[in-house]
Design brief:
alpha+beta, Aminopeptidase, three-stranded mixed sheet, globular, transferase, acyltransferase, MshD_Acetyltransferase
């Protein structure tokens, strides 16, 4: 498996993968593929990585700028992340996240935040400090990975593509 930045010829495969990966998920509202497309179109797709195996795109992860209490300050959001159904639970997603975090750290980002299951993302080093919030969600699902500086506190907001998709 090779993890690399997306190329223009990956766009359709990423779209199909994202739709297929989220379709069976109870928590999905179907907005994930439109979010990725909107992030790309708006220039907010800071980092987009694919996992490729034998020429097929089997995974994708997106990172985009976030604000905390209205300030960007070097923080990025993780997601959406998609893995082909027949390759899930085999480390593809974890490898995509690890490579994305490494690349963000190399860009001197301060950290990365996400909304997600602590049982999954906690194993990747994400934590909830109870000080970071997002639209009234239970703060245990509002998680972060700090590269430098203090842990974040305040209201987390994702790129406008997330709002446009109805999130």
């Amino acid at each position: 498996m090779l993890i690399r930045p997306e190329r223009p010829d990956d766009v359709d495969a990423i779209d199909r993968l994202t739709i297929a990966a989220f379709e069976p998920q109870w928590f999905s509202d179907g907005s994930e593929a439109p979010i990725v497309r909107s992030l790309r179109a708006s220039g907010d797709l800071t980092l987009s990585l694919v996992a490729e195996d034998e020429g097929d795109v089997i995974g994708h992860v997106a990172f985009s700028p976030v604000t905390i209490d209205g300030s960007h300050d070097g923080w990025f959001g993780l997601g959406p992340i998609s893995v082909r159904l027949d390759r899930q639970r085999r480390g593809v997603g974890r490898a995509l996240v690890a490579e994305g975090l490494r690349r963000l750290r190399d860009r001197e980002a301060r950290g990365c935040a996400l909304i997600g299951d602590p049982n999954i993302y906690g194993r990747m080093g994400f934590t909830a400090n109870g000080l970071l919030s997002h639209r009234g969600l239970d703060r245990v699902v509002v998680q972060h990975f700090t590269f430098s500086g203090p842990s974040p506190s305040g209201e987390l907001r994702f790129a406008p593509a997330f709002d446009a998709a109805g999130r």
